[in-house]
C-alpha cells in the first residue's frame, strides 16, 4: 500500500536546515556557527513574548537550543556555557569537532524514526499494527485543521477497516519528506 513512498533520497528540508547553520558555506558546521544561529532563534522567541522568569527561560533555552547559561559565583554578569548532550554529540567534549551534512541528516532521520516509533507504539498498544483511524490520528496530530473529528469520521466511513504496520507507516512518512513526492 505504501511501498511507492519509500525512498532513500536525502530530505530537502534537512539540507535547508543544515545550510542555515553553515554560515561560511564550507559544508561543515562548527560549534560557533551552531550557537550563533541558536542565539538568533532565542532572541526571536524572546521578542515574541516567550519570556518568563529566569528558571523558565533557562529551561526553554535548554530544550530549544541544547545549551544552558549558568551563573558563576552568584554574579549575574559572569556566566559559563554548559554543553548539553546534543552539543557534545555534535561537536565532541572539547567542542572542536565539525558536523557534516551526512552526520546531521543521520541524526535527524534517526530522531524522526524514533519519534514515529514511539507514537506508533502508543497507538498499537503492543500489537504489530494500528487501525486506519489511528494512522489518521497520527497524521492529524500536529495539523491546524479545525474539525479533526470530521476527518476521522470520513476515515471510519470511507476507508475499509485495514491495518497499518510500522514499516508501512515509516515508509509513508519517509515519502512525505523526500524531494521526489511525485508518487503522492
From TrEMBL:
Gene Ontology BP annotations: calcium import into the mitochondrion; mitochondrial calcium ion homeostasis
GO molecular function annotations of the record: calcium ion binding
An annotated GO cellular component: uniplex complex
Location(s) in or outside the cell: Mitochondrion inner membrane; Mitochondrion intermembrane space
SUPFAM superfamilies: EF-hand
Keywords: Calcium, Membrane, Metal-binding, Mitochondrion, Mitochondrion inner membrane, Repeat, Transit peptide
Keyword field contains Membrane: yes
EF-hand domain location: 9-44
InterPro entries reported for this sequence: EF-hand-dom_pair (IPR011992), EF_Hand_1_Ca_BS (IPR018247), EF_hand_dom (IPR002048), MICU1/2/3 (IPR039800)
Protein name: Calcium uptake protein 3, mitochondrial-like isoform X3
Gene: LOC104948889
Amino acid at each position: 500500500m505504501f511501498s511507492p513512498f519509500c525512498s532513500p533520497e536525502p530530505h530537502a528540508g534537512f539540507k535547508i536546515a543544515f545550510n542555515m547553520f553553515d554560515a561560511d558555506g564550507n559544508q561543515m558546521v562548527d560549534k560557533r556557527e551552531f550557537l550563533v544561529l541558536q542565539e538568533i532563534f532565542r532572541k526571536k522567541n524572546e521578542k515574541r513574548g516567550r519570556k518568563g522568569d529566569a528558571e523558565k527561560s533557562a529551561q526553554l533555552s535548554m530544550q530549544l537550543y541544547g545549551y544552558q547559561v549558568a551563573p558563576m559565583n552568584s554574579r549575574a554578569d559572569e556566566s559559563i556555557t554548559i554543553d548539553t548532550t546534543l552539543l557534545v554529540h555534535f561537536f565532541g567534549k572539547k567542542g572542536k569537532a565539525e558536523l557534516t551534512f551526512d552526520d546531521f541528516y543521520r541524526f535527524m532521520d534517526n530522531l524522526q524514526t524514533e519519534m514515529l516509533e514511539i507514537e506508533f507504539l502508543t497507538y498499537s498498544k503492543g500489537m504489530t499494527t494500528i487501525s486506519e483511524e489511528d494512522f489518521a490520528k497520527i497524521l492529524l496530530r500536529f495539523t491546524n485543521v479545525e474539525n479533526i473529528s470530521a476527518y476521522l469520521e470520513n476515515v471510519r466511513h470511507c476507508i475499509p477497516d485495514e491495518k497499518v504496520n510500522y514499516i508501512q507507516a515509516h515508509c509513508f512518512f519517509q515519502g512525505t519528506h523526500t524531494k521526489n513526492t511525485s508518487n503522492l
